[in-house]
Design brief:
binds zinc ion, about 350 residues, binds NADP nicotinamide-adenine-dinucleotide phosphate, 17 strands, six-stranded parallel sheet, 11 helices
Amino acid sequence: MVASLGYAAHKPSTPLAPFNFERREVGPHDVQIDIRYCGVCHSDLHQVRDEWGHGAFPMVPGHEIVGRVVKVGAQVKGFKPGDLAGVGCMVDSCRTCPSCGEGLEQYCEKGFVGTYNSNYKDGSPTYGGYSSNYVVDEAFALRISDKLDLAAAAPLLCAGITTWSPLRHWNVRKGQKVGVVGLGGLGHMAVKFAASFGAKVVLFTTSPGKSEDAIRLGAQEVVVSKNKDEMKKHMRSFDFILDTVSAAHDINAYTALLKREGTLTLVGVPPQPPTLNIGNLIFSRRQLGGSLIGGIRETQEMLDYCAEHGIVSDIEMIPMQKIDEAYERMLKSDVKYRFVIDMETLKG
Ligand code: NAP
Ligand code: ZN
Ligand code: ZN
Protein backbone atom coordinates (compact mmCIF):
# COMPACT_ATOMS: atom_id res chain seq x y z
CA MET A 1 0.00 0.00 0.00
CA VAL A 2 1.01 3.64 -0.48
CA ALA A 3 0.98 5.75 2.69
CA SER A 4 -0.68 9.14 2.28
CA LEU A 5 -1.19 12.17 4.49
CA GLY A 6 -4.21 14.33 3.79
CA TYR A 7 -6.53 16.88 5.32
CA ALA A 8 -9.98 15.48 6.00
CA ALA A 9 -13.37 16.63 7.16
CA HIS A 10 -14.36 14.13 9.85
CA LYS A 11 -17.87 15.56 10.13
CA PRO A 12 -19.71 18.27 8.14
CA SER A 13 -19.49 20.65 11.09
CA THR A 14 -15.82 20.39 12.06
CA PRO A 15 -12.72 22.06 10.55
CA LEU A 16 -10.51 19.94 8.30
CA ALA A 17 -7.68 18.15 10.13
CA PRO A 18 -4.66 15.96 9.29
CA PHE A 19 -5.58 12.39 8.36
CA ASN A 20 -3.28 9.45 7.62
CA PHE A 21 -4.58 6.82 5.21
CA GLU A 22 -3.40 4.37 2.55
CA ARG A 23 -3.86 4.31 -1.18
CA ARG A 24 -3.75 1.12 -3.26
CA GLU A 25 -0.44 -0.31 -4.39
CA VAL A 26 0.56 0.93 -7.87
CA GLY A 27 -1.03 -1.60 -10.26
CA PRO A 28 0.10 -2.43 -13.82
CA HIS A 29 -1.95 0.44 -15.34
CA ASP A 30 -1.47 2.93 -12.51
CA VAL A 31 0.65 6.00 -12.01
CA GLN A 32 1.59 7.37 -8.61
CA ILE A 33 1.66 11.15 -8.47
CA ASP A 34 3.33 13.27 -5.80
CA ILE A 35 0.88 16.12 -5.44
CA ARG A 36 2.39 19.64 -5.65
CA TYR A 37 -0.77 21.76 -5.80
CA CYS A 38 -4.50 21.25 -5.44
CA GLY A 39 -7.17 23.80 -6.34
CA VAL A 40 -10.10 24.54 -4.03
CA CYS A 41 -13.45 24.13 -5.80
CA HIS A 42 -16.78 25.29 -4.40
CA SER A 43 -17.87 21.65 -4.84
CA ASP A 44 -15.34 20.77 -2.11
CA LEU A 45 -17.16 23.13 0.22
CA HIS A 46 -20.63 21.83 -0.76
CA GLN A 47 -19.45 18.29 -0.07
CA VAL A 48 -17.46 18.69 3.17
CA ARG A 49 -20.46 20.54 4.61
CA ASP A 50 -22.71 17.78 3.21
CA GLU A 51 -24.95 20.32 1.41
CA TRP A 52 -25.69 17.84 -1.38
CA GLY A 53 -26.33 14.88 1.00
CA HIS A 54 -24.69 11.43 0.75
CA GLY A 55 -21.36 12.73 2.09
CA ALA A 56 -19.03 9.91 3.27
CA PHE A 57 -16.74 10.84 6.18
CA PRO A 58 -13.86 11.12 6.81
CA MET A 59 -13.68 13.01 3.50
CA VAL A 60 -10.44 14.22 1.91
CA PRO A 61 -11.61 16.72 -0.74
CA GLY A 62 -9.74 18.00 -3.77
CA HIS A 63 -10.15 17.31 -7.50
CA GLU A 64 -7.87 19.89 -9.12
CA ILE A 65 -4.68 17.91 -8.67
CA VAL A 66 -1.28 18.50 -10.27
CA GLY A 67 2.08 17.01 -9.46
CA ARG A 68 4.90 14.79 -10.64
CA VAL A 69 4.78 11.11 -11.49
CA VAL A 70 7.03 9.14 -9.13
CA LYS A 71 6.15 5.57 -10.09
CA VAL A 72 4.40 3.81 -12.98
CA GLY A 73 3.02 0.28 -13.41
CA ALA A 74 4.54 -2.18 -15.88
CA GLN A 75 1.82 -1.64 -18.54
CA VAL A 76 1.76 2.17 -18.40
CA LYS A 77 2.47 3.74 -21.80
CA GLY A 78 1.72 7.45 -21.49
CA PHE A 79 3.71 8.48 -18.40
CA LYS A 80 7.15 7.97 -16.90
CA PRO A 81 8.64 9.02 -13.57
CA GLY A 82 9.40 12.74 -13.56
CA ASP A 83 6.50 13.70 -15.87
CA LEU A 84 3.97 16.31 -14.81
CA ALA A 85 0.47 14.91 -14.44
CA GLY A 86 -2.97 15.96 -13.31
CA VAL A 87 -6.13 14.37 -11.96
CA GLY A 88 -9.55 15.99 -12.21
CA CYS A 89 -12.94 14.95 -10.87
CA MET A 90 -12.99 11.32 -12.07
CA VAL A 91 -10.67 8.37 -11.49
CA ASP A 92 -12.63 5.56 -13.21
CA SER A 93 -15.88 4.69 -15.01
CA CYS A 94 -17.46 1.52 -16.43
CA ARG A 95 -15.58 2.05 -19.73
CA THR A 96 -18.17 0.00 -21.68
CA CYS A 97 -21.43 2.02 -21.79
CA PRO A 98 -22.25 4.26 -24.80
CA SER A 99 -21.18 7.44 -22.95
CA CYS A 100 -17.82 5.95 -21.97
CA GLY A 101 -17.44 4.71 -25.54
CA GLU A 102 -17.82 8.29 -26.78
CA GLY A 103 -15.26 9.64 -24.32
CA LEU A 104 -17.96 11.18 -22.14
CA GLU A 105 -17.03 9.33 -18.96
CA GLN A 106 -18.65 12.07 -16.86
CA TYR A 107 -22.01 10.79 -18.13
CA CYS A 108 -21.13 7.10 -17.55
CA GLU A 109 -24.44 5.30 -17.36
CA LYS A 110 -23.23 3.26 -14.39
CA GLY A 111 -21.87 6.36 -12.65
CA PHE A 112 -18.22 7.40 -12.72
CA VAL A 113 -15.87 6.92 -9.78
CA GLY A 114 -15.29 10.36 -8.25
CA THR A 115 -11.83 11.45 -7.15
CA TYR A 116 -13.16 11.71 -3.59
CA ASN A 117 -16.41 11.14 -1.68
CA SER A 118 -16.98 8.12 -3.92
CA ASN A 119 -16.08 4.42 -4.05
CA TYR A 120 -13.77 2.41 -6.27
CA LYS A 121 -15.26 -0.60 -8.03
CA ASP A 122 -14.13 -2.80 -5.09
CA GLY A 123 -16.18 -0.64 -2.71
CA SER A 124 -13.24 1.07 -0.98
CA PRO A 125 -13.49 4.86 -0.53
CA THR A 126 -11.72 7.39 -2.74
CA TYR A 127 -9.77 10.20 -1.07
CA GLY A 128 -9.00 13.43 -2.92
CA GLY A 129 -6.14 15.76 -3.59
CA TYR A 130 -5.76 17.68 -0.34
CA SER A 131 -3.06 15.08 0.25
CA SER A 132 0.52 14.08 -0.44
CA ASN A 133 -0.07 11.69 -3.36
CA TYR A 134 -2.59 9.95 -5.62
CA VAL A 135 -2.57 6.55 -7.33
CA VAL A 136 -4.64 6.59 -10.51
CA ASP A 137 -5.16 4.49 -13.63
CA GLU A 138 -3.31 6.24 -16.46
CA ALA A 139 -6.57 6.31 -18.44
CA PHE A 140 -7.77 8.99 -15.99
CA ALA A 141 -4.49 10.91 -15.65
CA LEU A 142 -3.88 14.06 -17.72
CA ARG A 143 -0.67 15.35 -19.24
CA ILE A 144 0.30 18.89 -18.18
CA SER A 145 2.65 20.98 -20.28
CA ASP A 146 5.73 22.37 -18.53
CA LYS A 147 5.00 25.63 -20.40
CA LEU A 148 2.23 26.35 -17.88
CA ASP A 149 2.69 27.69 -14.37
CA LEU A 150 1.96 24.46 -12.50
CA ALA A 151 0.06 25.94 -9.55
CA ALA A 152 -2.11 28.08 -11.84
CA ALA A 153 -2.79 25.07 -14.07
CA ALA A 154 -4.34 23.05 -11.21
CA PRO A 155 -7.79 24.74 -11.46
CA LEU A 156 -7.98 23.79 -15.15
CA LEU A 157 -8.72 20.23 -13.99
CA CYS A 158 -12.20 21.22 -12.78
CA ALA A 159 -12.98 24.94 -13.20
CA GLY A 160 -11.31 24.85 -16.62
CA ILE A 161 -12.95 21.78 -18.10
CA THR A 162 -16.37 22.52 -16.54
CA THR A 163 -16.57 25.80 -18.44
CA TRP A 164 -14.70 24.67 -21.57
CA SER A 165 -17.03 21.73 -22.19
CA PRO A 166 -20.35 23.63 -22.40
CA LEU A 167 -18.78 26.53 -24.33
CA ARG A 168 -17.55 23.99 -26.87
CA HIS A 169 -20.71 21.85 -26.87
CA TRP A 170 -22.93 24.88 -27.55
CA ASN A 171 -20.36 26.06 -30.10
CA VAL A 172 -19.63 29.49 -28.64
CA ARG A 173 -17.81 31.44 -31.32
CA LYS A 174 -16.87 34.76 -32.87
CA GLY A 175 -19.80 37.03 -33.56
CA GLN A 176 -21.87 35.76 -30.63
CA LYS A 177 -22.92 37.59 -27.50
CA VAL A 178 -22.22 35.36 -24.51
CA GLY A 179 -23.03 35.92 -20.84
CA VAL A 180 -21.19 34.49 -17.85
CA VAL A 181 -22.96 34.65 -14.50
CA GLY A 182 -20.70 34.83 -11.42
CA LEU A 183 -16.99 35.70 -11.34
CA GLY A 184 -15.60 32.94 -9.15
CA GLY A 185 -13.37 29.98 -10.01
CA LEU A 186 -15.57 28.68 -12.82
CA GLY A 187 -16.79 32.08 -13.99
CA HIS A 188 -13.34 33.58 -14.49
CA MET A 189 -12.28 30.60 -16.61
CA ALA A 190 -15.50 30.89 -18.63
CA VAL A 191 -14.72 34.56 -19.34
CA LYS A 192 -11.19 33.68 -20.48
CA PHE A 193 -12.30 30.82 -22.74
CA ALA A 194 -15.33 32.55 -24.28
CA ALA A 195 -13.20 35.64 -25.03
CA SER A 196 -10.48 33.47 -26.51
CA PHE A 197 -13.07 31.82 -28.81
CA GLY A 198 -13.89 35.32 -30.11
CA ALA A 199 -17.28 35.88 -28.47
CA LYS A 200 -18.40 39.22 -27.05
CA VAL A 201 -18.51 38.42 -23.34
CA VAL A 202 -20.73 40.13 -20.77
CA LEU A 203 -20.08 39.28 -17.12
CA PHE A 204 -22.94 39.33 -14.60
CA THR A 205 -21.83 39.81 -11.02
CA THR A 206 -23.14 40.59 -7.57
CA SER A 207 -19.75 42.11 -6.68
CA PRO A 208 -19.28 45.55 -8.29
CA GLY A 209 -15.64 45.49 -7.11
CA LYS A 210 -14.84 42.72 -9.61
CA SER A 211 -15.68 44.83 -12.70
CA GLU A 212 -12.13 45.88 -13.55
CA ASP A 213 -10.87 42.33 -13.22
CA ALA A 214 -13.64 41.04 -15.46
CA ILE A 215 -12.56 43.41 -18.23
CA ARG A 216 -8.90 42.43 -17.74
CA LEU A 217 -9.91 38.75 -18.00
CA GLY A 218 -11.66 39.33 -21.33
CA ALA A 219 -15.20 40.62 -20.72
CA GLN A 220 -16.31 43.56 -22.85
CA GLU A 221 -19.01 44.61 -20.45
CA VAL A 222 -19.93 44.04 -16.81
CA VAL A 223 -23.47 44.10 -15.45
CA VAL A 224 -24.19 44.28 -11.75
CA SER A 225 -27.08 41.84 -11.66
CA LYS A 226 -28.89 43.52 -8.76
CA ASN A 227 -29.39 46.60 -10.97
CA LYS A 228 -32.71 45.92 -12.76
CA ASP A 229 -32.27 48.79 -15.27
CA GLU A 230 -28.87 47.51 -16.35
CA MET A 231 -30.32 44.01 -16.74
CA LYS A 232 -33.23 45.32 -18.84
CA LYS A 233 -30.88 46.84 -21.39
CA HIS A 234 -29.78 43.31 -22.34
CA MET A 235 -33.25 41.76 -22.84
CA ARG A 236 -33.46 39.26 -25.73
CA SER A 237 -29.85 39.81 -26.78
CA PHE A 238 -27.76 36.77 -25.81
CA ASP A 239 -26.95 33.69 -27.88
CA PHE A 240 -25.70 31.78 -24.86
CA ILE A 241 -25.37 32.31 -21.10
CA LEU A 242 -23.36 30.13 -18.72
CA ASP A 243 -24.51 30.28 -15.09
CA THR A 244 -21.75 29.38 -12.60
CA VAL A 245 -23.43 30.61 -9.41
CA SER A 246 -23.02 28.46 -6.29
CA ALA A 247 -26.02 29.78 -4.29
CA ALA A 248 -29.76 30.15 -4.83
CA HIS A 249 -30.61 32.96 -7.27
CA ASP A 250 -33.21 33.87 -9.90
CA ILE A 251 -32.40 32.07 -13.15
CA ASN A 252 -35.49 33.54 -14.86
CA ALA A 253 -33.75 36.91 -14.87
CA TYR A 254 -31.27 35.28 -17.29
CA THR A 255 -33.59 33.27 -19.56
CA ALA A 256 -35.28 36.63 -20.25
CA LEU A 257 -31.99 37.97 -21.61
CA LEU A 258 -31.68 35.24 -24.27
CA LYS A 259 -32.54 35.79 -27.91
CA ARG A 260 -35.20 33.58 -29.42
CA GLU A 261 -33.79 30.02 -29.30
CA GLY A 262 -30.87 31.07 -27.12
CA THR A 263 -29.58 28.74 -24.39
CA LEU A 264 -28.97 29.19 -20.68
CA THR A 265 -26.71 26.42 -19.36
CA LEU A 266 -26.32 25.78 -15.66
CA VAL A 267 -23.08 24.49 -14.21
CA GLY A 268 -23.41 25.90 -10.67
CA VAL A 269 -25.05 23.46 -8.27
CA PRO A 270 -26.75 25.45 -5.48
CA PRO A 271 -28.10 23.17 -2.74
CA GLN A 272 -31.65 24.51 -3.33
CA PRO A 273 -33.30 23.93 -6.74
CA PRO A 274 -34.28 27.06 -8.72
CA THR A 275 -37.85 28.15 -9.52
CA LEU A 276 -38.50 28.11 -13.23
CA ASN A 277 -40.65 30.52 -15.25
CA ILE A 278 -41.51 28.21 -18.15
CA GLY A 279 -43.16 31.07 -20.06
CA ASN A 280 -39.71 32.58 -20.61
CA LEU A 281 -38.74 29.38 -22.42
CA ILE A 282 -41.98 28.57 -24.26
CA PHE A 283 -42.71 32.00 -25.69
CA SER A 284 -39.28 32.30 -27.33
CA ARG A 285 -38.36 28.65 -27.91
CA ARG A 286 -35.43 29.20 -25.55
CA GLN A 287 -33.51 26.35 -24.02
CA LEU A 288 -32.32 25.54 -20.53
CA GLY A 289 -29.40 23.12 -20.25
CA GLY A 290 -26.96 21.66 -17.78
CA SER A 291 -23.42 20.40 -18.09
CA LEU A 292 -21.12 18.28 -15.94
CA ILE A 293 -17.33 18.69 -15.98
CA GLY A 294 -15.99 17.10 -19.23
CA GLY A 295 -14.61 13.81 -20.55
CA ILE A 296 -10.97 12.79 -20.26
CA ARG A 297 -10.20 13.28 -23.96
CA GLU A 298 -11.82 16.70 -23.90
CA THR A 299 -9.93 17.62 -20.71
CA GLN A 300 -6.65 16.82 -22.46
CA GLU A 301 -7.70 18.94 -25.46
CA MET A 302 -8.48 21.84 -23.11
CA LEU A 303 -5.11 21.49 -21.31
CA ASP A 304 -3.27 21.41 -24.65
CA TYR A 305 -5.20 24.49 -25.84
CA CYS A 306 -4.26 26.28 -22.61
CA ALA A 307 -0.59 25.42 -23.10
CA GLU A 308 -0.74 26.72 -26.66
CA HIS A 309 -2.57 29.93 -25.75
CA GLY A 310 -0.96 30.59 -22.35
CA ILE A 311 -4.24 30.28 -20.43
CA VAL A 312 -4.21 29.46 -16.72
CA SER A 313 -6.26 30.38 -13.68
CA ASP A 314 -5.74 33.53 -11.60
CA ILE A 315 -4.87 32.07 -8.22
CA GLU A 316 -4.23 32.88 -4.59
CA MET A 317 -1.91 30.33 -3.01
CA ILE A 318 -2.70 29.18 0.52
CA PRO A 319 -1.06 26.84 3.00
CA MET A 320 -3.07 23.70 3.85
CA GLN A 321 -3.79 25.00 7.35
CA LYS A 322 -5.79 27.96 5.95
CA ILE A 323 -8.37 25.84 4.17
CA ASP A 324 -11.29 26.61 6.49
CA GLU A 325 -10.57 30.34 6.21
CA ALA A 326 -10.53 29.95 2.41
CA TYR A 327 -13.94 28.27 2.52
CA GLU A 328 -15.35 31.15 4.57
CA ARG A 329 -13.98 33.67 2.07
CA MET A 330 -15.42 31.64 -0.79
CA LEU A 331 -18.85 31.88 0.84
CA LYS A 332 -18.49 35.67 0.78
CA SER A 333 -17.52 35.60 -2.94
CA ASP A 334 -14.10 36.84 -1.83
CA VAL A 335 -11.94 34.74 -4.16
CA LYS A 336 -9.57 36.08 -6.82
CA TYR A 337 -10.18 33.78 -8.51
CA ARG A 338 -9.20 30.36 -7.23
CA PHE A 339 -7.51 29.26 -4.04
CA VAL A 340 -4.74 26.74 -4.64
CA ILE A 341 -3.15 24.77 -1.82
CA ASP A 342 0.64 24.49 -1.81
CA MET A 343 1.08 20.86 -0.79
CA GLU A 344 4.58 21.56 0.56
CA THR A 345 2.78 23.06 3.55
CA LEU A 346 0.87 19.86 4.31
CA LYS A 347 3.09 18.80 7.20
CA GLY A 348 2.88 22.27 8.76
P1 NAP B 1 -16.94 30.18 -6.46
O1 NAP B 1 -15.53 30.35 -6.84
O2 NAP B 1 -17.34 30.29 -5.04
O3 NAP B 1 -17.80 31.21 -7.38
C1 NAP B 1 -19.17 31.31 -7.31
C2 NAP B 1 -19.57 32.74 -7.68
O4 NAP B 1 -20.98 32.81 -7.71
C3 NAP B 1 -19.16 33.79 -6.68
O5 NAP B 1 -17.84 34.21 -6.81
C4 NAP B 1 -20.14 34.89 -6.96
O6 NAP B 1 -19.72 35.65 -8.08
C5 NAP B 1 -21.39 34.14 -7.37
N1 NAP B 1 -22.36 34.06 -6.27
C6 NAP B 1 -22.16 33.52 -5.03
N2 NAP B 1 -23.26 33.63 -4.28
C7 NAP B 1 -24.19 34.23 -5.07
C8 NAP B 1 -25.55 34.60 -4.87
N3 NAP B 1 -26.17 34.38 -3.71
N4 NAP B 1 -26.21 35.20 -5.90
C9 NAP B 1 -25.59 35.42 -7.08
N5 NAP B 1 -24.30 35.10 -7.30
C10 NAP B 1 -23.61 34.51 -6.32
O7 NAP B 1 -17.48 28.73 -6.93
P2 NAP B 1 -16.96 27.80 -8.14
O8 NAP B 1 -15.90 26.89 -7.61
O9 NAP B 1 -16.74 28.61 -9.32
O10 NAP B 1 -18.25 26.86 -8.33
C11 NAP B 1 -19.49 27.41 -8.73
C12 NAP B 1 -20.58 26.37 -8.68
O11 NAP B 1 -20.32 25.39 -9.70
C13 NAP B 1 -20.64 25.58 -7.37
O12 NAP B 1 -22.01 25.33 -7.07
C14 NAP B 1 -19.94 24.27 -7.72
O13 NAP B 1 -20.33 23.19 -6.92
C15 NAP B 1 -20.39 24.09 -9.13
N6 NAP B 1 -19.56 23.20 -9.96
C16 NAP B 1 -20.19 22.47 -10.91
C17 NAP B 1 -19.47 21.66 -11.75
C18 NAP B 1 -20.17 20.89 -12.85
O14 NAP B 1 -19.59 19.95 -13.38
N7 NAP B 1 -21.37 21.28 -13.24
C19 NAP B 1 -18.08 21.56 -11.61
C20 NAP B 1 -17.47 22.35 -10.64
C21 NAP B 1 -18.20 23.17 -9.82
P3 NAP B 1 -19.89 37.25 -8.10
O15 NAP B 1 -19.12 37.76 -6.92
O16 NAP B 1 -19.31 37.63 -9.41
O17 NAP B 1 -21.38 37.52 -8.04
ZN1 ZN C 1 -14.80 21.14 -8.94
ZN1 ZN D 1 -19.76 4.03 -18.58
